[in-house]
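Revision sheet: structure tokens.
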Amino acid sequence: MINVTIDNKQIQVPEGTTILKAARMAGIHIPTLCYFELSAS
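Predicted:
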């Protein structure tokens, strides 16, 4: 796990987590035009 601070909110996320996904985990909305999450299967 790594520590990330976004908009003064500190969270821990697994290594390799994108900034967009980390923000979503913290409840922070970042507008995007296109985002497709690939499954890890």
